[in-house]
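Q: Structure tokens for this one, please.
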Amino acid sequence: MASSNKFRIFFLAFLLLASPLLQVARCQSDSEAESAETAEEVSDVGIVGEDAQDFGDRSYSPAPGVDTVCVFPKNSARIVPAGEETELLVGVKNDGESSLKVYAIEASVHLPFDHSLLVQNLTAQVFNNASVPTSAQATLPYVFAVNKFLQPGTFDLVGTIIYEIDQHPYQSTFFNGTIEVVEAGAFLSIESVFLVTLGIALIVILVLWIRGQIQQLSKKTKRATKVEVGTRSTDASMDEWLQGTAYTQSLSKKSKKK
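A: Here is the predicted structure, written as tokens:
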């Protein structure tokens, strides 16, 4: 009887000691289940998210038959406010023999005179279900934001798209050009102010030139109304008014004597 009571006490103590371990195991299983559900949800989405995979400094060659193009929608001047999101669209045309699968779009900002001087690595946009069949085209969005502390000025943006064809990775540069970084909330950029000032100056010069032409034309018109008679110039209207008088007869006699 005493041994039975001791066994019960030992069993209860074991349950009390083991309960935290059971709780931890349950929490771990719950978290694994949640992560599995999240993975299933992500697999159904084309855009996985930012920085879902680190591609490092790997560089691949472009695949033959694949052409890319880049468009800044509603932003043809390529003005990028610092700290604010900017959207561009990447067009992919696949004229190859096999379909391609898009992995990611990434970009970087460099100094314009030397691309070896990296200013900022922008966030990579990773895709999960983005594929382009043969003889087809696709448009993929890419949203980026430069550092809000980046000094306004002109920089070079290099954008690349990483994809796979027949389990071989490739990479194509869809944009390699300049962008103008401005302060957030700035209405006019330096180039815009310069263009507006140049336009106003050209308009002023044109107005002055037209005014000078009008003044010269008016002077020529006034000179054309005078008629030369002998060695004197008289007004044509005055000659008609004095025609037949003694004044005109004396003028005609003087001209005959000469």
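A few notes: The two ends are 171 Å apart (CA to CA). The chain is about 35% helix and 35% strand.
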